[in-house]
Design a protein that fits this description.
Layout: E1 24-29, H1 34-44, E2 52-58, E3 63-69, H2 72-75, H3 79-84, E4 89-95, E5 110-114, E6 117-127, H4 130-139, H5 151-159, H6 165-173, E7 178-186, E8 190-194, E9 203-207, E10 210-214, H7 218-221, E11 226-230, E12 236-240, E13 243-247, E14 257-258, H8 259-265, E15 271-272, E16 275-276, H9 277-292, E17 298-301, H10 307-317, E18 325-327, H11 340-350, E19 351-353, E20 362-367, H12 374-385, E21 390-395, H13 417-420, H14 423-430, E22 434-437, H15 440-446, E23 459-460, H16 462-465, H17 473-476
Parallel strand pairs: 14-23, 17-20, 20-21, 21-22
Antiparallel strand pairs: 1-4, 1-10, 2-3, 2-4, 5-6, 6-7, 7-8, 8-12, 9-10, 9-11, 12-13, 15-16, 18-19
Helix pairs in contact: 5-6, 9-10, 9-15, 11-12
This protein binds adenosine monophosphate.
Length: 492
C-alpha cells in the first residue's frame, strides 16, 4: 500500500498524546450492581490512567454514560452518578496520557449507534496503523469525532459488510496493527479481545453469574470476583446471556507481552500471564544484586515503584532494606503530568528524605526505570544532601532508549536519558558513585527464561532493544501532519 497522504487530515492525532493511550478497562455483564462494581474496578485500575475516567451501562433498552476528567473517585463519588448508570452490563475505562491536553471526546468508552444498536468501546494499547486506516476512512466519508486511535475501530465496524456484530468486530480488527486489548459492549453482548501478540493484558473474572473482563486481576480482587484466566493473545471472548464463548479469529503470532508491565506499569498485586508482578519485581532485584553489587550499608527504594525490586536486592545481599525516602501518597504518578514544569514540581511534591536512614551511610538506591532522568536527578540530589557517604543507583530495567509505540507513552528518543548518554555520561550527570541497570538477560531470567531469545524474543522489550514486534506503519508513513488540531482544548 502507498504511504498515506496524511496532510489531508485536519486533526493531528500525533500532536500531543492523543494516539498514545495507556489505559485500563473494566467490563461486567450480568450483574445487578454493574455500575458500582465498575466504579470500584476502575478505582483499582487507577494507576493505568489518571487523567480521565468513563463508564457506559446498558439497561436492556437504553445506554447510559458518564465521563469526566480526573480520578475515578472524583468522577464516580456522587450517588447520583452511579444510580443514573442503570443496567446489568457496564463498561468502564481510565485514560492516561503523558503530555498535552485531553479532550472530552477522546475520553472512553467511545460510543456509537449503529444499525444493530449501540456499541461502547474501551481500549488499552496503541494501534500502529490507525492514521493510515483513518485517512482511508475519511476518504470514504467517515466523520471522525475524536483524535483517538480507538475511533477507527468504531468506523470499521460500522462500514463492515459482515452480517453479525461479532463478524464485524473481527473484520474491523483484522485491519489493524499494533497493540489492543479491547472490551466492547452492545445491546446483546460484551466482547473482549487481545491483539494476536497479546501486548497488553486482559483477564476474565467471575462474580456469581456475572462475567468480568478487565486489564488486571487487582480489579477483580476489589469486588471479590474470582480470576478465571487471561484472554489469550489473538482470542476474542463473547459473553452474553448464554455464558462465555471463545473464538480465535486471527492468524497465530508469537506472544509478545509487554515486559514493562512487569517492571513498572501493572500493579504489584496483580498476576499477569500467570506470574505475580510483585514476585517478578523482587526477582529482578535479586538478579540486579547478583550483577552489580558493591559494598553498602543500606538498600533504599524509590517508593513506590522501586520497593519490590529493592526488597529482592536487599535480601540477596543480606543488607538492611530501609525506607530512606518517604512518598506522599496524595499526588499522582510523577510521570503523568502534562508539562515539563509540573513534572519537576511533581517530584518534589512526591518524595521526602527520611534522614536517619541515610545520613553517614553508603546507600544503594533502587528504582524501576529512568525515562527522562528527572526523578533520579532529584532523588540522588536529596539523598546526597541528607548526608549519604556514597550513592549507588540501581535500576530494575535495562536502559530505556527507545520510544514505545505499543501503548505506553514514553517520550521521543531525544528526550530519553539513556538514548542521549552512555553509562559514564549518565553516572556523571546523575552525580552517583555508580550506576547499573539490569541486563536484558537478567531481566529475562527474572521472568522465568534462561535468556532472551534473540531470534524471537519472548516479550515485547522494544523500549530497551529497539526491536519492535510488528510494523510501525504510521510512523514510517512519509508525511505526518503537524498542523494544529482542530480538536484541541477549547474547541471540543
Ligand atoms: P523520569 O523522571 O522521566 O526519568 O521518570 C522515571 C520515573 O517515572 C520512574 O521512576 C518510573 O517510576 C516512572 N515511569 C517510568 N515509565 C513510566 C511511564 N511510561 N508512565 C508513567 N511513569 C513512568
Amino acid at each position: 500500500m502507498a504511504p498515506p497522504d496524511l496532510s489531508l487530515l485536519t486533526t493531528d492525532p500525533w500532536d500531543g498524546d492523543t494516539l498514545h493511550e495507556e489505559c485500563g478497562v473494566f467490563g461486567i455483564f450480568g450483574d445487578a450492581d454493574a455500575a458500582s462494581h465498575t466504579a470500584l474496578g476502575l478505582h483499582a485500575l487507577q494507576h493505568r490512567g489518571q487523567e480521565a475516567a468513563g463508564a457506559v451501562t446498558f439497561d436492556g433498552e437504553h445506554f447510559h454514560s458518564h465521563r469526566g476528567f480526573g480520578h475515578v473517585s472524583d468522577n464516580f463519588k456522587a450517588e447520583s452518578v452511579v444510580s443514573r448508570l442503570q443496567g446489568h452490563a457496564a463498561l468502564g475505562h481510565v485514560l492516561y496520557s503523558t503530555s498535552g491536553e485531553i479532550i472530552i471526546r477522546n475520553v472512553q468508552p467511545l460510543f456509537a449507534d449503529f444499525e444493530f444498536g449501540g456499541l461502547a468501546l474501551g481500549h488499552n494499547g496503541n494501534i500502529t496503523n490507525a492514521l493510515t486506516v483513518r485517512q482511508e476512512l475519511v476518504r470514504r466519508g467517515c466523520l471522525f469525532q475524536s483524535t483517538s486511535d480507538t475511533e477507527v475501530v468504531i468506523h470499521l465496524i460500522a462500514i463492515s459488510q459482515q452480517p453479525t456484530v461479532e463478524e464485524r468486530v473481527i473484520d474491523a480488527l483484522r485491519q489493524l496493527e499494533g497493540a489492543y486489548s479491547m472490551v466492547a459492549l452492545t445491546n446483546a453482548a460484551m466482547y473482549g479481545v487481545r491483539d494476536p501478540m497479546g501486548v497488553r493484558p486482559l483477564v476474565i473474572g467471575k462474580l456469581d453469574k456475572a462475567y468480568i473482563l478487565c486489564s488486571e486481576t487487582c480489579a477483580l480482587d476489589i469486588i471479590g470476583a474470582e480470576f478465571v484466566r487471561d484472554v489469550a493473545p489473538g482470542e476474542m471472548v463473547i459473553i452474553d446471556e448464554n455464558g462465555l464463548r471463545s473464538v480465535k479469529p486471527f492468524p497465530s503470532y508469537d506472544s509478545k507481552f509487554c515486559i514493562f508491565e512487569y517492571i513498572y506499569f501493572a500493579r504489584p498485586d496483580s498476576v499477569c500471564e500467570g506470574s505475580s508482578v510483585y514476585e517478578v519485581r523482587k526477582k529482578i532485584g535479586e538478579e540486579l544484586a547478583k550483577e552489580s553489587h558493591v559494598p553498602c550499608d543500606v538498600v533504599v527504594p524509590v517508593p513506590d515503584s522501586g520497593v519490590p525490586a529493592a526488597l529482592g536486592y536487599a535480601a540477596a545481599i543480606n543488607v538492611p532494606f530501609e525506607y530512606g525516602i518517604i512518598r506522599n501518597h496524595y499526588v499522582g504518578r510523577t510521570f503523568i503530568q502534562p508539562t515539563e514544569k509540573t513534572r519537576h514540581l511533581g517530584v518534589k511534591r512526591k518524595h521526602n528524605i527520611n534522614r536517619a536512614q541515610i545520613e553517614g551511610k553508603r546507600v544503594i538506591l533502587v528504582d524501576d526505570s529512568i525515562v527522562r532522568g528527572t526523578t533520579s536527578t532529584k532523588i540522588v540530589d536529596m539523598v546526597r544532601q541528607a548526608g549519604a557517604t556514597e550513592v549507588h543507583l540501581r535500576i530494575s530495567s535495562p536502559p530505556t532508549a527507545h520510544p514505545c509505540y505499543f501503548g505506553i507513552d514514553t517520550p521521543e528518543r531525544e528526550q530519553l536519558f539513556a538514548a542521549q548518554h552512555d553509562l559514564d555520561g549518565m553516572t556523571k550527570l546523575l552525580g552517583v558513585d555508580s550506576l547499573a541497570f539490569i541486563s536484558t538477560d537478567g531481566l529475562y531470567r527474572a521472568v522465568g527464561h534462561a535468556k532472551r531469545d534473540t531470534d524471537n524474543p519472548q516479550f515485547c522489550d522494544a523500549c530497551f532493544t529497539g526491536e519492535y514486534p510488528s510494523a510501525l506503519t504510521d510512523l514510517n508513513a512519509e508525511a505526518l501532519p503537524h498542523q494544529l488540531s482542530l480538536l484541541t482544548e477549547g474547541r471540543a
